[in-house]
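Posting here for the record, re: calcium ion.
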Amino acid sequence: MNIKIVLLLVLFTGTIFFAQVMHSPNGKATLVFKLTEKGEPTYQFSLGNKEVIKQSKLGLELKELEALKEGFTVERIDSSLTDETWNPVWGEVKSIRNNYKELAVILTQLSTKRQIIIRFRLYDEGLGFRYEFPIQDNLKYFTVAEEKTEFFLTGDHKTFWIPGDYDTNEYAYTTSKISAVDAYFGKTADEIGFKTLIAPNAVQTPLMMKTDDGLYINIHEAALVDYSAMNLVIDQKSFKLTSHLVPDKLGNKGYLQTPCKTPWRTIIAAEKAADILASKLILNLNEPCKLEETSWIKPTKYVGIWWEMHVGKSTWNYSDINNVKLNLTDWKNLNPNGKHGATTERTKQYIDFAAKHGLDGVLVEGWNIGWEDWWGYGKEEVFDFLTPYPDFNVEELQKYAEQKGVKIIMHHETSASVSNYERRMDEAYNFMKKHGYDAVKTGYVGRIIPRSEYHDSQWMVNHYVRVAEKTAKYHIMLDAHEPVRPTGLHRTYPNWLACEAARGNEFNAWSEGNKPEHETILPFTRLMGGPMDYTPGIFQIKLNYYKDGKKEQVHTTLAKQLALYVTLYSPLQMAADLPENYERFPDAFKFIEDVAVDWDDTKILEAEPGDYLTIARKEKNKDNWFIGAITDENSRATTIALDFLDADKNYIAIIYTDGDDAHYDSDPMSYQINSYVVTNKSDLKLKLACGGGAAISLRPATIEDIKNLKKL
Ligand code: NOJ
Ligand code: CA
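Prediction output follows.
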C-alpha cells in the first residue's frame, strides 16, 4: 500500500493539534483533516489547485448529552487504499471501479470519554465522510438534536435549489446565487402556511452548484438508512452551508443506539459538468447488493392506466363520491361514475398494446377500493390493497396478461397512511404473488400517518427501506412515489428500480407544469441519488385535445420526450401517453419500442445544468447505441462525433429530431425522422428547437441498409 499521509504535530498555544493531509489515488483531490485548538474536528477539500470546501467544522448536538463537537483528541488514525471493481445488477455501465483512499480518525472527547470515528473516503472526483459511534459504556442510546456538519463554500456560487421541505421534493428548481436563495419564495413563514415544514433558508440535496471560475460542485448523501434526510441551511453572508436534519414532530432528529453510523456526506467536484454525471461515488459508498438471488429483477418498460386520469379523461374513483369518509366495504352501495379508468376492458386494451409493441408491463392505478376518500383527513384505514372495484376482474386479467406475455404492475397508493400499509404489506404482497404481479408502484401522497412523522424523517426513511427489503423477499420490484430522495440504496437493494422523489412529468397535466429547463437540471440534482420514474413519452403535448379550454401542456417538443428515455436514466421507463395517441404517431413510437432500459456503457457527451445535455448509451449485451440530446427554452445547434462507435462496423442511425418549425409552445408536435448509414468517423449535426430535443437509435447496419441509405 502506497499511501502518503503527512502527519503534522503542531504546537499551538500549548495545545497539540493534528493536521492530516491525504491525496486521492490520482493525486488530484486533497483532504485536510485538522483538530482546532478547541479540539473541534474540521476538514477541507480541494480539487487540483482549487479549493472546493474551505476548512469546515464537523460534529453533532445531542439531546440531554454533551455535544460531540469539541474537546476531542485524536486517539488513532487508520488509513487504507481500496481499488476494486463490481458489476451492478443493472445500471448505466456494466462495471464500476471503486478506487479510494480511506482515513478513519478515531477521536475521544476528553470531558466525556466518548469516542467517535470520522471516516473519510477520498476519490479522484470527490469526498465522502460519515460519523460512526462505536459501542461504549457511556454512549448506548442517544437522540440527535442536530448534526452540525459544515460545507464552507469558497464564494457566492450559482446554485440549482429547491426548498428544504420536510414532506416533499416536488418543486421546480430555482437557479440563483447562494446569496439569493429564499426558501420561502419572498413570503413569511405565516404566509406560506407550512412554517413547520420548511427549515428557514434551507435547501434540499442533491445541491448542484457552479463557481464563478467554472468548477461544478454537487453535495448530497449516500446510504441514508436509520437516520433522517439532510437539508442544508445557508449562511448567505459567509456562504457556509450547515446540515439541518429533518426532525420528527417532537423536533428530534434521530434516535440512535451504538454501534451505529450516519449516512455518508458526499461532495463531488469537477471542471466539466459531464464528469459530475459520470461519477459513481454515491453508488460506491453504498453497501453491496444484499440480495442473494437477483435473476428475477428485470429492467422494465411499461404503459399504464395513468395519464388518462391525470388529464381528466378517466378517474381513479369508481363512483362519483369524493372526499366522503367511507368504510372499506361501502363501495357496494355506490353508483359507478361511468369514467372509471381501471376496468377489465380498458386494462385488456393496454395489455394488447404492450404485447403488440414489445413492452413489458401495464401499470393499473385505481383498481382497488378506497379512492373515494383517499384525500380524507381521517384516512387511517383508507385502502386494503386487496379488494378490486367491481369492474376490475383480477383473475380474468391475470390469465389474459399471462397469455399475452405481459406483466401487470401493482399500484399501492398508501395516501401516506403508512401505519395502515405497514399492517397490510404482507397480505398485499401475498395477494400480488398469487395473482402474478412482480412489481409494485407505491405512493405517499398527503401528510404522513402516524402524524408524528414527515416524509423525510427517520421513521419514514426506515419505512422505505423496510418496503425495499420486504418486497425483495417476495421477489417484487419496487417503484416508490413521494419517498425521501434516493441516496444510492439501489446498489444494496437492486429490486428498488426507481423512485419519483421529484417533480415528474405529471405536473404538466394539472399545474403550470415543468419549465423546459427542468429536465436539464434533474440529472444534476435528483438523479445523482438514483433513477427516477419521470414518466416521459407524452406525444399529445397540448392538453386542450382532451377538453376545450384546458390550458395545461407539456413544455417540451415531442422529439424531446423521446430524448428523455436516454437523458433521464432509469431501469424503469414508462411510455406515459395513451395507446391511442401512440397509434397516431407509429413512426415516432418506434423509438420508444426500440430504446433499451439497461446499459453496458454511458458517455456524457455534453452537459450544462439548466441549459443542455447529450448522452449516448450502449444497450446491455448488444451492439446498439441510443443518444438523447435535450435543450432548455433556447434552440441549439450541436455536432456530435460518433467516435465512441466500433471502428469496424457500419451502423444505421435513425434520427428523430424537431421539425423545422418546432417549438415547445407554438408547434411542439412537429418532428422529422431520417435514417443514414454512419461510422465512428461520422459527425452528427443536430438542431434542437426551443424546448426541443433529438433521439437517435444506432444499430449495426445490414448489407441492405448500406445499399439503400445515404452515408453520413
Ligand atoms: C402521485 C403519483 O406521483 C402519481 O404517479 C399517481 O398517479 C398519483 N399520486 C395517484 O397515486
Ligand atoms: Ca408525485
